[in-house]
Amino acid sequence: MLAKYLSAADLAYRFGVSKATIWRWKREGQIPSPVYLGARCTRWREEDIQDYEKGLIPDVMLG
């Protein structure tokens, strides 16, 4: 199966934040590390983001 890759804009839409926030989260290590597909082409693997989201749910529920 081919991996699906998400851009910063895709992640911003998915989490309801700005692209600048995605880049800040990346810089602070708050989201999974991206992969670099070429010069000026940074993407996140959808599978990594889904795993990250699963980890967020218990944190929110524990309050």
Automatic annotation (TrEMBL):
Q: Which Pfam families does UniProt cross-reference here?
A: HTH_17 (PF12728)
Tell me which residues make up the Helix-turn-helix domain.
5-52
Q: What is this protein called?
A: AlpA family phage regulatory protein
InterPro entries reported for this sequence: DNA-bd_dom_put_sf, HTH_17
Query: From what organism does this protein derive?
Result: Vreelandella janggokensis
